Amino acid sequence: MHPLLERQIRRHLGDATAIPEAMHALFQAIGEAYEHADADRRLVEHALDQMSRELTERNRELQRQLVEKQRTEAEQAALIKRLEEAHNQLLQSEKMASIGQLAAGVAHEINNPIGYVNSNLASLRDYVRQMLAVLDAYERAEPLLPDGGEREDVLAAKRAAELDYLKADVVALLDESSDGIARVRRIVQDLKDFSHADRGEWVLADLHKGLDSTLNVVNNEIKYKARVEKLYGDLPMVRCLPSQLNQVFMNLLVNAAHAIDKQGVITVRTGVEGDDVWVEVADTGCGIPEALLTRIFDPFFTTKPVGKGTGLGLSISYGIVHKHGGHIEVKSEPGRGTVFRVNLPLHSSVDEDADHE
User: Residue 276 has what pLDDT?
Assistant: First the structure.
């Protein structure tokens, strides 16, 4: 007899032996019905348990797929961001390369008429020297002129022309013109050196020459804001891509000028430490808050006002120095100024062929 049926009989009828014989078949059928119900219940529970396990496993799989999808989407977003940054850096580099080619072409075109002017000034100086010699000869012959109208006419013409002043000033004008032409030629040469120094080839270069040419190129950005002090050490020749390092120097110098509000000092130092050469650009500008120092090499990050910078200068500089096997250090104190140090290896292990590819 089914245990549940037996408990019910005891509860309502007392002892099971008191059940009439005619009722035994009924109770036997009821007990079998209980047994079948238990069996069905166990089947249902087993099925529900199996469904619960399958649902739990499916839920875990869906959660795993969701996490994987979110991770993939995050990786794709990060990849898209890196591609955008690389694309914009490439555009900026191509822009700088185009500007460099344009500057080199303009410098070449300027060089030709400057050559004519310089040559003509040399000839003019010689002609003026000869004319002054003739005038001196005429002046020595003046006392031989008879007194009268002709001599008075000569003296009046000399006074009207201020001949003594003209003789001195024409030489001074020629000297100033020659100095100006020489300065233009230096600027043109510095522009050519800055923009087209290496044609993408690794060469042994004088970093001091690169610094000097870059300072001349960016002089207009600096001269109204700061005095430049050069404290050069004794540097050996460094194997590098000179025009790319010139771009690094330009970015650091322009940033230093922009950091100075009114008047300040930009100090350029160089030296050798161990197996590295280093170039420092220090300014007495506004400085950079410590919380921002870890972000200044990030693409598009800038502390300048909107419209004043692209946020790519330091990022590109970091990449160029890294390509040379070096690194950039920065120290800054708000209100006191900032120091950037570019460290470059004397004996680089950079794969130059890979760089060309």
Answer: 92
The DSSP annotation for 135-174 comes to HHHHHHHGGGSPTTHHHHHHHHHHHHHTHHHHHHHHHHHH
Q: How many domains does the chain have?
A: 1
The reply to whether 80 falls in a domain is no
Biggest alpha carbon–alpha carbon distance for the chain: 183
Domain that holds residue 348: 200-357
d(Cα 47, Cα 252) in Å, to the nearest integer?
73
pLDDT in tens, 121-173: 889 989 998 988 888 888 888 777 777 777 788 888 888 888 888 888 998 99
Instruction: Pick the closest to residue 96 from 104, 108, 107 (CA basis).
Output: 104
CA dihedral 45, 47, 49, 54 (to 10 degrees): -170
pTM: 0.54
Segment 47-84, tens digit of pLDDT: 888 999 999 999 999 999 899 988 888 888 888 877 77
